Inverse folding.
């Protein structure tokens, strides 16, 4: 059985490091991107099984990155889970769903919820 790959898109080094460690303990190969541009490039070249996407990042935000990934034939079906501290303000959750997010999780991340959702999307 091939190792499942998760693309973690997060601009804060500490958050990315912590979440990467957590995902690795679940037996997943973790690819890391610091912004939406890197996310689109890695999604296209690596075809991960799941993408965990921050929304507010430099160069290209998570909304645009998600929409770009959804618009490409080779990446349009990769599940994308948005994780953001801003989902409870304004209409960010609605906007994230509108551009193609499958799930929306709030920061700070509930680790049990994150594990459950990741397992759901990476189960064979």
């Amino acid at each position: 059985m091939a190792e499942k790959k998760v693309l973690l898109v997060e601009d804060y080094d500490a958050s990315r490091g912590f979440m990467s460690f957590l995902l690795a303990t679940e037996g997943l190969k973790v690819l890391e991107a610091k912004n939406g541009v890197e996310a689109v490039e890695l999604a296209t070249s690596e075809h991960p099984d799941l993408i965990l996407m921050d929304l507010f990042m430099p160069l290209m935000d998570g909304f645009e990155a998600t929409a770009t990934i959804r618009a490409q034939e080779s990446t349009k079906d990769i599940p994308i889970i948005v994780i953001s501290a801003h989902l409870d303000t304004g209409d960010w959750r609605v906007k994230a769903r509108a551009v193609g997010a499958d799930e929306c999780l709030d920061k700070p991340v509930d680790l049990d919820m994150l594990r459950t959702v990741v397992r759901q999307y990476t189960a064979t």
Observations:
- Residues 13-25 form the longest helix (13 residues).
